[in-house]
Every structure is written in C-alpha cells, then in structure tokens.
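Hi V.,

You were right to ask for the full record rather than a summary. Here it is.
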Amino acid sequence: MSSATDALHHDDHHHGPEMTGIRRWLFTTNHKDIGTMYLVFSLLMFFVGGAMALIVRAELGQPGLQFVNPGFYNQMVTMHALIMIFGAVMPAFVGLANWMIPMMVGAPDMALPRMNNWSFWILPAAFTILLATLFVPGGAPASGWTMYPPLVLQTGDAFPLLIFSVHLMGISSIMGAINIIVTIMNMRAPGMTLLKMPMFVWSWLITAYLLIAVMPVLAGAVTMLLTDQFFGTSFFRAAGGGDPVMFQHIFWFFGHPEVYIMILPAFGIISEIIPTFSRKPLFGYDSMVYATASIAFLSFIVWAHHMFTVGMPLTGQLFFMFSTMLIAVPTGVKIFNWTSTMWRGSMTFETPMLFAIAFLFLFTIGGFSGLMLAIVPADFQYHDSYFVVAHFHYVLVPGAIFAIMAAAYYWLPKWTGHMYNETLGKWHFWLTTIFVNMTFFPMHFVGLAGMPRRIPDYATQFADFNLLATVGAFGFGLSQLLFVWIVVSCARGGKPATAEVWDNPKGLEWTVPSPAPYHTFEQAPEVK
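Predicted structure:
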C-alpha cells in the first residue's frame, strides 16, 4: 500500500525538464501533448479524407463522367473511407482519451507513457505509406475499405503498401488500447470505484477491450490476402480451392465491432455533456454502463448482417437478423436515458449541447435505417444501394463526428484556458447540421429507388437528389474551415476560462485550473 501511495504522490522527476520546440513533440511522454498531437493529426486527416469525398461528390453532381475516370473514382471512394475511419475518427477518440482519462480518474499521466508516444508516432508513418499509394504504378487501392478479394488482388503496386499501412494502424490502436485499460484499472484516485467513473471513461474501457479483441482479426485477414497474392496460398482464391466469402466473414468479424469502436466513445462524450447542460445527474447511470457493455458484447455476434446476399443458409440469416435487432434494445436504453436526463432539467444551449442534441436526433435516424437493413428480405433490396451509404453516414457523421466536435467545444476552454467564440460556434453548428442533412438525407431516396453505391455514373432520374447531396457536401466541407478558425483563435487567446468553465459540471477534470497544468495531479485527489 505504501509503495502505491508513494507512486501516486511521486514528483515528476522521471519526466525530466519540459522540452521545447520540435523535441517536445517528438519525444514527449506527457498525455496532454500526445492527446493534442492525436487531435491535430485527426483534424488534418479529416480534411484529407474530406477532400477525397468532395472529388467523389463533384463527379456525382450530374449524370455522365465529368472530372475523373472510373478507376480513379474508385480509388477516391476507398481512400476516403480508410482515411476517415482509421485516420480521422479513431485517432480523434484516442486523442480525447489521452487528454481526458488521466484527468477524469485523478491519475498523473497515462500508465505507459513511452508506449503512448510510440503509439502516436506510428500513425503518421502508416498514413504516409497509405497516401504514397496514390503515386505508385496502378494507383491507390480501389477495392473499397472492405478490401474484398478477388477485387483487391487486382490492385497494382499499392497492394503491399496498403497491407503494411493497415498493420501499422492496427499496432497503434492495440498499443493505445492496452495503455487505456492499464491506466483505468491501476491509476484511479482513491475512492473512485468502477461505478463512480465518468461515463466517458467507462465507454473507453469497453472500447479498448473491443480494439484488443478485433484488431488482430483484421491483421489476420489482410495477412492472408498478402500470402494469397505473393506466396501461392489459396485462402480466398476459388481456383485453388479457397473461398472469397470466407474473407467477408473474417473481415466483418472485425468490421462490426469496429463500428462500435467508432461510436461507444461518442456515447461517453454525450453522457458527459447532456448532464452538464441539463444541470442534472445522468439518468440511470448503472443502466448506461450495462447497456454499453451489452452493445459491445452483441457487436461480436451480428457480423454477417453485412452479408445477407452471399447465399447464407436460412438459419444463419434468421440468427443474424434477430441478434442485430437485439442491439436496438441497449441502444434504445441509452437514448431514453439521455432524453430523461434532459427532462425537466434547467437546460441551456451552448454549442456542445447543440451538437449533443443533434447527435441524439440524427444518430437515432441512423439507428432506424440500421433496423431496416437488419430485416433480411428488405435488405435484399437495400444491399449495396445508396440507402446503405445514407445509413452508415448518418451513424458516423452526426454520430461519431458530431460527438468529437461537441467534445472539442466542451473541453477546449479546459485545454487552452480561453473561452471560444460562442456565436461562431453556433454558426458552425447550424451550418454543419443543415449541410449534413442536405448531403445524406437524399441518399435514402436514391437508394430506395435503386441507385447502386460505388458507381461514378447513374441514370438521369437520380440527378436532382444527387445535385442536392453534392451542394450539401461542399457546404459541409467549407463549414469545417470555420471550426478550424474557432479552435485556432481560441488557442491563441480570448476570454479567460475559469476552472469549472461551465455552470457546476461534475468530474475531477473541473477541479484543476484552466488551462490544465502540464502535470495535473501531483497528489492523488480523494473521491468522496
């Protein structure tokens, strides 16, 4: 016990003096610096992936081929997805975890600070390799982010680079997840039992276990692709007795938990923000924890709902249909609890709360279209249409990305010590929300009318809705420049923020000054 107490009351001499300049960022082991680097990297990738999405939308603005050839169009679709998932959404959540989890649990830093530095610096290398594929003979991968064989095996010289960069992303994710679990399990302040932890910490603890479970599955799948291509194996080559559908099973066993890896931390963020601006404790805290854990568990047994059209036996279709519909129950519990938290609360509508409420409405739309896709006979109609594109973008943009933006506004004063410009924040919110719906809502209609996804051209009857979506996409992209302006101007100055920032928020992170000091807790706080 005494050694544990000594560790908590340690002086930070092993950190050495605070480094300056480029060395500070290259060699830092401080969780705040590393969190900042993750967030900046993710913002950069958000714009790179967004630029690729705008190339796709520009091409789809009118029927016929306008700007790019079909091969390059498919490269843009594939790279957009890989960069947004592995480069924008996941690193943003890991950055928020790095910044906030030690402060929320009363720890002086992450448990494994050197590994923390390493897990970040692997990412720029991975994405440099991935983006370099645009310049190799044969161009970037054009097989969709799912990398289905045999199509992916027709990739040119980019193929081994794609596999290597995916491996690096996975290594980074696993290292980050191990670090988060060890920090939460071993470094909580005295008195902070598991059921006293903030919901954001809970959601990340569960997400970290998901990452450790499924990232090696993806690594296995892409390694099998690699050996099929270069070492004469036939895992997925039908000519050698392999089965391309087996790849889909392995991939989606990773891919479906991956979807929840991208949304559970968002649930945690929303569970922090709504109580603060409703001025009430979170309704049904325990049920929120159990619901999050249930969603994580169920995510492992629903993967084949992505594959209803591959010729699955009826028993399999029924199992995956019912288990998928079951996920709606814990998700519904969460929606109900957030709504109940706001009920009769003394609500105010600062920018983080606006994003949280928009998340609630729009994520629910994505959830409903997911239930539609879960029904096998209906899915035969929806599968590989723009309806699916509408569904997963409603889950990921107003879901994951709105939550990340809400978190940025919510904690930015704590990070920088300055209040951001609330008026500009609201402008950013309304522009973003209007353009998101303008971009993705029409896709439901063109999908139901039969427009297939991943095509650069389409029949003229889809033209009006596609033009609307393209205008919305460019509007959404341009609105995000306002977000950058708000963040940068807040970092450079503004009205000083108090320690609490908001009106009586709950949690240890609001007990430290704003900006949070370089080393947060010299002595562990007591949690009553």
